[in-house]
């Protein structure tokens, strides 16, 4: 027996209701010009790699499910038993409802976005230009033979294209821009691309935004590479440590270097004054246990003094302020 529309809506509502409890992260993906086959392939891949689940339905149905999640269930509600067992408070869930515009889908997952992105956006299919659609990219036809017979030369002239007849076929003499990014495809442009058997566009799912535990992340944030983020933090920490050392300001970044520098100064004074203390004795014992390489005792003692008196080579102490206030942050 075929599933009724009411049952399908109820199934989607319950699925969305339940997934907001199972997962802390929800990805909003754009489905414009995406085929049902592409959606199904993405679903299978997500399930196969255990990365998450995908829910596609009318925006009104998804919004209804979200509205149920905004308030705790009561015994007067429909499906109270189901909602009671799957309800948890989700902060700012209304932000997801506000983003449901156009043809979109939801992917629930706890995996990092950089792991999901290849699965979601990799499956792109070439598509022909259709009249009235907005061109996602500029489309340019290079000079060269078209394979069309001279009887169709008037069509090219109507588009103000520079052409010539070469070896019994029409040849484009100069590069010609057919479509401009952000503008609608006109009828003549669509016909031209069809005549030349060109499918200029490629469509697939695209991550629009990420709802992560109550916070909405934009592409500028979730598209960042984890290594790039780590490098930025490392550079900021390095520059903050350098600044703090130069100012003599103790903090979590500068104190370890201050302690090391202070110990080296104390050790230098102790060696010059023929004094000793436990930490210096342990340091000397550790150094003497290593292979000497044939150096004389006096030379080793002198080298040890020079090594202790030598200023610490702390990379962070360099006053490189560019990274702190420039592109590194």
Tag the structure with descriptive keywords.
five-stranded antiparallel β-sheet; Molybdopterin biosynthesis moea protein, domain 2; single chain; alpha+beta; Alpha-Beta Plaits; 46% helix
Commentary on this structure:
There is one protein chain. Helix 1 (5-22) crosses helix 3 (59-69). The chain has helices at 5-22, 36-48, 59-69, 80-86, 94-99, 113-121, 153-158, 187-195, 219-222, 226-247, 255-272, 278-288, 297-309, 322-325; strands spanning 25-30, 53-55, 104-108, 125-127, 139-141, 144-145, 163-166, 169-172, 176-179, 201-203, 206-212, 215-217. The strands form four sheets. A five-stranded antiparallel β-sheet has the order 2-3-1-11-12, with helices on both faces. Strands 6-8-7 form a three-stranded antiparallel β-sheet. By secondary structure, the protein is of the alpha+beta class. It folds into three domains: 5-124 and 204-224, 2-Layer Sandwich (Alpha-Beta Plaits); 139-200, Ribosomal protein L10, N-terminal fragment, domain II (Molybdopterin biosynthesis moea protein, domain 2, Alpha-Beta Complex), CATH 3.90.105; 227-289 and 296-325, no CATH class. Helices cover 46% and strands 14% of the residues.
Please render the helix and strand layout as text:
Blueprint: H1 5-22, E1 25-30, H2 36-48, E2 53-55, H3 59-69, H4 80-86, H5 94-99, E3 104-108, H6 113-121, E4 125-127, E5 139-141, E6 144-145, H7 153-158, E7 163-166, E8 169-172, E9 176-179, H8 187-195, E10 201-203, E11 206-212, E12 215-217, H9 219-222, H10 226-247, H11 255-272, H12 278-288, H13 297-309, H14 322-325
Antiparallel strand pairs: 1-3, 1-11, 2-3, 4-10, 5-9, 6-8, 7-8, 11-12
Helix pairs in contact: 1-3
């Amino acid at each position: 027996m075929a599933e009724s529309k009411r049952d399908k809506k109820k199934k989607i509502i319950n699925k969305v209701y339940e997934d907001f409890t199972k997962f802390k992260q929800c990805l909003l993906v754009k489905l414009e010009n995406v085929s049902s086959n592409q959606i199904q392939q993405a679903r299978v891949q997500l399930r196969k790699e255990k990365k998450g689940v995908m829910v596609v339905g009318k925006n009104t149905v998804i919004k209804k499910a979200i509205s149920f999640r905004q308030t705790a269930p009561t015994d007067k509600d429909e499906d109270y038993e189901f909602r009671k067992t799957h309800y948890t408070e989700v902060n700012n869930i209304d932000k997801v409802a506000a983003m449901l515009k156009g043809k979109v889908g939801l992917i629930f997952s706890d995996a990092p976005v950089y792991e999901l992105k290849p699965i979601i956006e990799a499956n792109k299919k070439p598509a022909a230009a259709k009249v009235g659609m907005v061109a996602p990219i500029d489309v340019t036809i290079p000079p060269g033979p078209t394979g069309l017979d001279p009887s169709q030369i008037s069509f090219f002239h109507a588009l103000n294209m520079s052409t010539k007849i070469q070896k019994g076929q029409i040849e484009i003499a100069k590069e010609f821009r057919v479509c401009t990014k952000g503008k609608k495809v006109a009828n003549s442009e669509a016909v031209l691309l069809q005549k030349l058997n060109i499918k200029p566009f490629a469509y697939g799912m695209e991550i629009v935004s990420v709802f992560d535990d109550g916070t909405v992340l934009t592409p500028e944030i979730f598209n960042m590479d984890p290594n790039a983020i780590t490098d930025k933090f490392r550079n900021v920490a390095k520059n903050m440590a350098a600044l703090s050392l130069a100012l003599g300001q103790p903090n979590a970044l500068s104190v370890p270097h201050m302690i090391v520098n202070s110990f080296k100064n104390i050790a230098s004074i102790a060696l010059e004054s023929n004094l000793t203390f436990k930490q210096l004795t342990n340091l000397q014992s550790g150094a003497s246990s290593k292979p000497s390489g044939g150096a004389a005792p006096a030379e080793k003692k002198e080298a040890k003094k020079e090594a202790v008196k030598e200023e610490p080579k702390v990379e962070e102490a360099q006053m490189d302020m560019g990274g702190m206030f420039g592109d590194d942050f």
